[in-house]
């Protein structure tokens, strides 16, 4: 049995636990395109010849390009940030403040991993001015992901990284591609705000537009698209015309631990090749 590869970033909504079940729903193809790459668990645990990995988070894509090009140099600099003296609230806020003021890509990438591992719950959140604003996490000894960075760098030789939105990502798709979309999830209830899930605000309009893009890409161009989201009436309505499957997943819905319960994960596959074979 092949051991699953962990991402080197902690990531809210990361797909590591689901990756075995999820990859069974991915069609075969030459290249996997991910418009919402996040921490990259699907990329790391699939075997396509090539990858196009996109995200609107500039810091994330910048970090991946640096790890792809100069992993050893990056590891040396980033590891220096993982000492007992730097696992400190005041130091964390000082680094966060510096991060929000510097523009040097390499320095930002080093600070980004430090904050990802020392910040609260590995969250990645920015304020309206674009400042990173996740509080200190108070962990006993944050883990430095040396092996995970090296594994990512190795696999990244097959990948191209682009800092673009999901609409533009679809415009780069071509024959032989397979698209996997892991958007910010639709809220489980009308009281749950989208801003809880993502700082940039992924609206209901975005959810609907993504569904339409996926449908047209599959039907008009023969490129299959798999989307994951909460299995709720809203998403089943949005992804009409897709082939549905579900995966059960443990997710913390409420603030307190007692709120943990199983929420089904919807896998919506638009694949015109499948429909034409089964019509």
UniProtKB/TrEMBL annotation:
Coiled coil ranges: none
Reaction(s) catalysed by this chain's protein: a 2'-deoxyadenosine in DNA + S-adenosyl-L-methionine = an N(6)-methyl-2'-deoxyadenosine in DNA + S-adenosyl-L-homocysteine + H(+)
Enzyme class of the recorded protein, top EC level: transferase
E.C. number: 2.1.1.72
Entry-linked Gene3D superfamilies: Adenine-specific Methyltransferase, Domain 2, Vaccinia Virus protein VP39
InterPro entries xrefs: Ade_MeTrfase_dom_2, DNA_methylase_N6_adenine_CS, M_m6A_EcoRV, MeTrfase_D12, SAM-dependent_MTases_sf
Pfam hit, one: MethyltransfD12
Key word S-adenosyl-L-methionine present: yes
Keywords: Methyltransferase, S-adenosyl-L-methionine, Transferase
Keyword Isomerase attached: no
UniProt xrefs under NCBIfam families: dam
Protein family membership: Belongs to the N(4)/N(6)-methyltransferase family.
Record-given protein name: Site-specific DNA-methyltransferase (adenine-specific)
Lineage: Bacteria, Pseudomonadati, Pseudomonadota, Gammaproteobacteria, Alteromonadales
């Amino acid at each position: 049995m092949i051991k699953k590869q962990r991402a080197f970033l902690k990531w809210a909504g990361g797909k590591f636990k689901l990756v075995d079940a999820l990859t069974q729903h991915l069609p075969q193809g030459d290249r996997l395109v991910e418009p919402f790459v996040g921490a990259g668990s699907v990329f790391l645990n699939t075997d396509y010849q090539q990858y196009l990995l996109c995200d609107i988070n500039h810091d994330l894509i910048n970090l991946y390009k640096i790890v792809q090009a100069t992993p050893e140099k990056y590891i040396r600099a980033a590891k220096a940030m993982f000492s007992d003296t730097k696992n400190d609230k005041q130091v964390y806020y000082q680094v966060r403040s510096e991060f929000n003021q510097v523009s040097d890509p390499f320095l930002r990438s080093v600070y980004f991993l430090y904050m990802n591992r020392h910040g609260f719950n590995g969250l990645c959140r920015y304020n309206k001015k674009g400042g990173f604003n996740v509080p200190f996490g108070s962990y006993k000894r944050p883990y430095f992901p040396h092996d995970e960075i090296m594994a990512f760098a190795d696999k990244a030789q097959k990948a191209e990284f682009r800092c673009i939105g999901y609409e533009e990502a679809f415009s780069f798709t071509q024959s032989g591609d397979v698209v996997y979309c892991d958007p910010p999830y639709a809220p489980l209830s009308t009281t749950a705000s989208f801003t809880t899930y993502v700082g940039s605000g992924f609206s209901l309009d975005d959810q609907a537009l993504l569904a339409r893009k996926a449908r047209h890409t599959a039907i008009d161009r023969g490129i299959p698209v798999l989307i994951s989201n909460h299995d709720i009436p809203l998403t089943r309505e949005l992804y009409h015309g897709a082939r549905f499957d579900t995966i059960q997943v443990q997710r913390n819905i409420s603030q307190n631990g007692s709120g943990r319960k199983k929420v089904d994960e919807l896998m919506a596959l638009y694949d015109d090749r499948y429909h034409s074979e089964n019509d």
